[in-house]
Design a protein that fits this description.
Pfam families: MbnP. This is Copper-binding protein MbnP-like domain-containing protein. A hairpin with a 2-residue loop joins strand 1 and strand 2. By secondary structure, the chain is mainly beta. The chain is globular, with a radius of gyration of 23 Å. It has one domain. Strands 3, 4, 5, 6, 8, 9, 10, 11 and 13 form a nine-stranded mixed sheet that branches. Strands 1, 2, 7, 12 and 14 form a five-stranded mixed sheet that branches. Helices cover 14% and strands 40% of the residues.
Length: 257
């Protein structure tokens, strides 16, 4: 009888081990950490004080050029929540925000330790290490159309549209900012202070609303004239100039329960 029991235990263990290795590609959910909670990030793409509408709304930039938006995508990565005593850093922190995909505008920061946080820090773009890692999945999958196959690296921010001022075919505008090293590095680190601190605890989930203002892309410190700058497809001075503008496009419109 004892022999039979031992045999059954060994068989069950072998079966479990076999299943475990057979299913090694299954991604298990992140285990919750005690005394922690999620914080929900919501991103709102704006044109001034109005919500961005793509393809059917005309806007004017600082140069008084009229334009429409057809594509607006960018990466937010390496997110941190700041407090007086500590900093929370998100694990594998890469988010692709696509105006055409509403589900990409909302995501959770998991396992944020209980405490009071006064602001948020993040990078616009993808850090240099993940630009040279090779084929990746999820937000960093090249299938998302945010990776240059002809020159290694991600497009950190993609803006496309039309303007009567553009001399390109069909008055097209296509500004794809990339480049992660040297003088033309377009990675931008942003630190924003919350209007009021948030306290993460066992109660209701906190929300942080980030507003991204499209008009900032063309305003400061470089006023962009679509008749002379309307196409960016490589790392270089134009991409850097564009990135210097989008570094200031974010603000926190709300933080709290």
């Amino acid at each position: 009888m004892k022999t039979n029991i031992i045999t059954l235990v060994l068989l069950a263990t072998a079966a479990f081990t076999s299943c475990r290795y057979k299913d090694k590609n299954i991604i298990l959910p992140v285990a919750p950490v005690s005394d922690s909670a999620n914080v929900k990030i919501e991103v709102f793409n704006m044109v001034g004080t109005s919500s961005l509408n793509m393809g059917n709304q005309w806007y004017r930039n600082e140069h008084n050029d009229s334009f429409q938006v057809t594509t607006f995508n960018y990466y937010i990565s390496n997110i941190k929540l700041n407090s007086a005593s500590a900093t929370y850093t998100e694990d594998y922190s890469y988010h692709l925000v696509q105006q055409s995909l509403s589900s990409s505008h909302i995501f959770d920061l998991a396992n944020v330790p209980y405490g009071t946080y006064t602001g948020i820090t993040f990078t616009i773009g993808v850090d240099s290490a993940h630009n040279v890692t090779g084929t990746q999945s999820g937000p960093l999958d090249p299938i998302n159309g945010m990776f240059w196959s002809w020159t290694t690296g991600y497009v950190m921010l993609k803006f496309e549209g039309v303007s009567p001022r553009s001399p390109q075919a069909n008055n097209a505008i296509a500004m794809h900012a990339g480049g992660f090293s040297g003088v033309n590095n377009v990675l931008k680190t942003v630190t924003l202070t919350f209007p009021t601190p948030i306290t993460v605890g066992s109660g209701a989930e906190n929300h942080v609303h980030l507003a991204a203002n499209v008009l900032a892309l063309f305003k400061s410190p470089n006023i962009i004239d679509f008749s002379t700058l309307n196409t960016i497809h490589m790392p270089g001075p134009d991409a850097k100039l564009f990135a210097d503008n989008y570094a200031s496009m974010f603000s926190v419109s709300y933080a709290g329960l």
